[in-house]
Amino acid sequence: MEYPVFYSFRRCPYAMRARSALLVSETPGRLREVVLRDKPDAMIAASAKGTVPVLVQNDDMVIDESLDIMLWALERNDPEHWLKDADQALSLIAEADGDFKAHLDRYKYPN
Predict the structure, then answer these.
(1) What is the pTM of this model?
(2) Which of 1, 7, 12, 28 has its CA 20 to 30 A from that of 109?
(3) Three-state DSSP state, 89
């Protein structure tokens, strides 16, 4: 059996949340840790965006947005009921994504 390939970067918060959902949903896969200054050709071929996370499935279907990876994994198996109240969960994620990214960037790259 071929497992999906998951391209990730350990400190990327978006990749972290996708990894969390894959782990909780017990989705098997092959983790490919990416060095951002030397991105794998296979990852770029799968997703020209060149950002992580990227999930490449056996049928060559590509999911390259963390929220989409989370939903795909949890819709397959959600043993901890993360999607029990999906509207509330998605609202919380949207709220965090709004200001979170700007604050994160200012923290990581102060100028």
Answers:
(1) 0.86
(2) 7
(3) helix
